[in-house]
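[Q] Does anyone have a clean structure-token version of this?
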Amino acid sequence: MIRGKKIERILIAIVAASSVLVDVPVVGGTLDIDRIGIMTELEHVDGLPDGAYPWDFEIDVFVPDPGELHHIDVTNPGASSVSETIYETEPGLWEFDPDNDASLDALRAKYAEGTYTLEFCDSDNALLKTVSLDYSGLSAPASLVDFIYPSLNGQIGVSTNPTFMWTIAADAGDILAPGIDDEDTGEHVYGALVSMTTLSWNSGPLLPNHDYHLDVTVSEIKDWVGPDNLPTMVVEDDEFIYCLTFDYINTISFTTSDMQPEDAVAEALINIQAVINQLPPESLHNENSANALIKKIDAALTMIDAGLYQETLDKLENDILKKTDGCAETGMPDRNDWIITCEAQAEVYPIVVQAIVLLESLI
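[A] Here you go.
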């Protein structure tokens, strides 16, 4: 599950994309509540659910200047008394994260959809503020995003400037937030919000010969309110931001190398040749298609060696990519494709796009 500051990063990313205004019932004083998140999470490891009962429920409240705030009493939907009390787990964060991994049905039986009431109290249990959130109307996406990790699913020797790829199911969710953690230093290296129509994300330069952990969260958003340049709901000078999400978390670990970007392009092209060599004959336009594509990639590799990056980019974009992009562009192979099944294109096309992204960083 995502904890602590990682939740904060993801919430910030989600808020940054929003222009939706919702009604948040609030009573009380001027306590500065930054963000509130009520989340049901489904964690995946390398694309598979993490155990037989992978669902988890969390409430996270961010109060950067808590003042007299001591605890938060939460009343669940339909309850007549306080259901749980939340205390500060790290500076500015009040977190309810019970150890209750369960099936979704079991989780909802305990934490139902409906109105959650949060009462913010001081050490004498005096009420500072009340916020009510409607946690309902959520639906879980039926399909996950299919992620393709650098260097063929995270093998050792990944470039320090890796590009992550994915294909997207129609019902995959609303928003995607990748992040990378340096396992050697414990630091979060990079976080970014990308749209669900984006096919690749470049993480930026990483340190060579370090171990990294990639988290990619796909969220189904119900409601949220954004600050600053976005529409903001102001109640007694406080901005209230909350999101209700299903989180799908794919994770993978990988090790970087001191590989230069041009070497990473060459590695990607060699990977494409290896994939093409393994394609079944029925996935190709004719018996000569595989050999012809491999020769085109050989030509691109020669250009890379000569430092002809723009020429290589033109070769990939206007020649090789055009032979593999029908399914990505229209959902089915087109008349220009030399790879004629969507299954086979899904193995080749993303790596070609990865090489193109890497080349663009050299020009």
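[Q] Thanks! Anything notable?
[A] Helices lie at 4-16, 104-110, 150-154, 261-277, 289-305, 309-320, 326-330, 342-360.
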